[in-house]
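JOB MANIFEST
job_type = single_chain_structure
chain_count = 1
residues = 129
[input]
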Amino acid sequence: MTNEEKIDHWISYAEYDKDTTKAMLDSNRYFYVVITAQQVMEKLLKAYYIKIKGKEPPRTHDIVRLSKELNVNFSEEQLNLFDKLFIYYHKQRYPDYIRKYNEEITKDIASDIYKNFDEVYKWLLSQMK
């Protein structure tokens, strides 16, 4: 695969997962809004990594690490979103945290995360055109 094909691949999967993120919000599955939003950001950051560095991104789910390795001047708001999504994503592997976050992530929290996520999503896509 060429780098352009790899970028298209990551973006295509990110677009699919973005639709899933919206579906989770619309169906009141707020915990999964956060989890799928993290997956979308991971895929877009990997596409952006290939675009900027011309090589494969690290095999990691750590979107904070990916954002740092890009050496891009992300805004404080964007970095805060990456931090928040990664914390939720990382802890979702543990049953006690799943119950806690399932109760903690309300419609307002999920909607706010989705709004910020959507802005970063659009910004990242614009950087790859």
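[summary]
The two ends are 19 Å apart (CA to CA).
The chain is about 80% helix and 0% strand.
exit_status = 0
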